[in-house]
Write a structure and sequence with these properties.
It is a single chain. The protein is α/β, with parallel strands linked by helices and 372 residues long. 38% of the residues lie in helices and 17% in strands. It has twelve helices and 15 strands. The strands form five sheets. The chain has a seven-stranded parallel sheet, sandwiched between helices. It starts with a strand and ends in a 6-residue tail after the last helix.
Length: 372
């Protein structure tokens, strides 16, 4: 095996840590030929090395990864969202050539308020620019983890070629600036003769392949809706709740370990852009009532549009979790073209989110929606 140098950002995030686990599975047997650089910031009184160590010690770590002593990992203690990280990164990879960058770090803020623009631009465009500017002369490939919703509101069959589409209507600022970053990054890679690969997960749920199953460190989107309903249950806020949805459509939910395996399958592949999604959207008319049933809330009704005469509970819902959830559950019926994805993943069976949804939700409820 020839020398392989990889730099992975976002290794302590949900997708990033699972990409890291897959990289270890893929390369640990060739430790003398592989280096994986991990820029990690210190946080909450813990050093970068301590935060990395936790990724291998906690109870929900995959069984084959737990307590591994990994010699291929090289921690770079820095915060890639700051300009100060440029010098640290440059010094760390000073003599490295043919670097493969997997950029998984960045904000997933789904806010729609214009006051959030600066924070979202910094968390998406800013970090990407710092990484690219600093590592430009060292890279041979840039793998960018984007979002399958970067094409905005779309109906019908959504293919993989979203980089140059026109007439986008975005649900939020996150989608908008992911799209802007994709385009700018692709143009810069062409100018610098660096291979670009844009990979787009849909809404990510817990593990459905690797033990221990159902784990997630991030309770957002449908998990956040469930957490809201659990709060309604605890506070005995029994006013009716009318939830606006498109009853013909659904939510595309993909397991995090399936995403990570797809990313690592493509490290040496020439695919330029691909959505990492499930073959079928989960119907809103299934999972929303199922969440309510499992939480024990019965005052929920699915309606076609946001109520014009909201009660106090509905005002709270549409002001909080509903502000982010509603744009995703009211969009046109759609599915994703998965033919390319399934060719890439032909040796890995696609887990059933529908079959496992109650277990995914049970994990969240059992752990009180606690972040790990």
């Amino acid at each position: 095996m020839s020398k392989v140098n990889i730099l992975l950002t976002g290794a302590t995030g949900l997708i990033g840590r699972h990409i890291l686990y897959e990289l270890i599975r893929l390369f640990n047997a060739d430790a003398k030929q592989v280096k994986i650089f991990l820029p990690i910031r210190s946080a909450n009184g813990q050093s970068a090395q301590q935060r990395l160590k936790q990724l291998f010690e906690r109870k929900h770590v995959p069984e084959d990864i737990r307590n591994n002593k990994i010699s291929i990992l090289h921690v770079i203690e820095t915060d890639v969202s700051t300009n100060e990280s440029r010098r640290v990164l440059q010094n760390s990879v000073d003599r490295v050539k043919d670097l493969i960058v997997i950029h998984s770090a960045g904000t997933t803020n789904l806010a729609t308020e214009e006051k959030m623009v600066a924070d979202i631009v910094k968390g998406i465009c800013g970090i990407t620019n710092i990484i690219f500017d600093t590592l430009d002369n060292h890279m041979k490939k840039f793998i960018y983890i984007s979002t399958a919703f970067v094409g905005g509101v779309r109906g019908g069959i959504i293919d993989n070629n979203l980089l140059n589409i026109d007439n986008r209507i975005y649900r939020n600022l996150y989608e908008k600036y992911k799209a802007i970053t994709e385009k700018e990054l692709a143009d810069r890679c062409i100018r610098s003769k660096i291979e670009i690969q844009i990979l787009r997960p849909s809404i990510v749920c817990g593990r459905l392949i690797d033990e221990k199953l159902y784990y997630t460190s991030k309770f957002d989107v449908f998990y956040a809706f469930a957490r809201f309903m659990a709060l309604v249950k605890r506070t005995k806020y029994y006013l009716p709740l009318r939830i606006a949805v498109n009853k013909d459509s659904g939510l595309n939910i993909v397991p995090v370990d399936y995403v990570a395996k797809a990313v690592c399958k493509l490290i040496f592949d020439s695919v330029k852009e691909m959505n990492i999604v499930h073959s079928n959207c989960l119907p809103h008319t299934y999972y929303i009532p199922e969440i309510c049933r499992m939480i024990g809330v019965s005052n929920v009704q699915l309606v076609d549009s946001v109520p014009s005469d909201p009660n106090d509970l509905e005002k709270l819902y549409y002001r909080t979790v509903g502000a982010q959830f509603t744009p995703y559950v009211t969009t046109p019926k759609h599915e994703f073209d998965i033919r390319l994805l399934r060719r890439v993943m032909r040796n890995i069976e696609e887990p059933s989110v529908l079959k496992n949804f109650p277990s995914l939700l049970s994990f969240a409820i059992k752990n009180n929606f606690k972040l790990f």
